[in-house]
Amino acid sequence: MTPRERSVLEALAQGFTNTALARKLHLSLSSVEKNLNAVFDKPELPRATGYDGGILAVLRYLES
């Protein structure tokens, strides 16, 4: 995970919305979404039907 992906995921874990993440990290909303998509596509993140990718990513982050 890149440092930027980690900072976006960390802010997501704190409960920020994508728009709030963009403001907090001084990024465009598009950049936030691209970084979150990259995190969700990481091979170590399990793909499970019926679960929100954001929640799984935050749980994985909190485990690390």
Task: Provide a descriptive summary of the structure in words.
It contains four helices and no strands. It is globular, with a radius of gyration of 11 Å. With 64 residues, it is mostly helical.
Kindly state the number of beta strands.
Answer: 0
Name the structural class.
mainly alpha
Question: Low-confidence parts lasting 5 or more residues at pLDDT below 50?
Answer: none
Helix content: 55-70%
Shape type:
globular
Rg for CA atoms: 11 Å
Major pleated sheet: none
Number of helix segments? 4
Instruction: Bin the strand percentage.
Output: under 5%
Cα distance, first to last residue? 12 Å
Helix-strand pattern, N to C?
Answer: HHHH
Overall average residue pLDDT: 79
Task: Write a compact overview of the structure shown.
The protein is an all-alpha fold and 64 residues long. The protein is built from 4 helices and no strands.
Secondary-structure map with pairings?
Layout: H1 3-13, H2 18-25, H3 29-40, H4 53-63
Key words describing this protein structure:
64 residues, mainly alpha, globular, 0% strand
